[in-house]
Amino acid sequence: MSITKVLIFIACITVTLAVGGIAGVATATSINNWYVYLQKPWFNPPNYLFGPVWTILYLLMGISFFMILTTLSTAKKRTSAVAVFGIQLALNFAWSFIFFKYHQLGWALVEIIAMWISIFTMIIVFSRINKIAAIMQIPYISWVSFATLLNLAIWRLN
Length: 158
Known about the structure:
This protein is mostly helical. The chain contains 6 helices and no strands. Helix 1 packs antiparallel against helix 2. The radius of gyration is 16 Å and the shape is elongated. 26% of the residues are buried.
């Protein structure tokens, strides 16, 4: 692998992990001071599970994005892929603030549905460039599907 590709790989991983890390740090106090007191459904996973799951998902996002950036494709396809990746990542980042920092459970539900749609769109766009990169997003959309149900249940219970 060329030095350019190594640097692109490092940048892709760093950006996705940084997005998750910044959101996590910015909202961490709400987890212990607010989230623990909410009524939650029976299927709410333990808090310690979220960090490792999201870390794996951000790594998969970064690797997948690297694959998109380094696969030969038309500029139009690549531009669309970069745009939809950026949109879903921005929505991912915003959800943590809407839910944990601002405690807006209903708006967080609306936002996570928009995030799910953007992830689904990303998978379709990625599949036109690199099928493996698209498949690597299936755990992400699966987890966000679960998180959407969890958000809905918490909103209804509170």
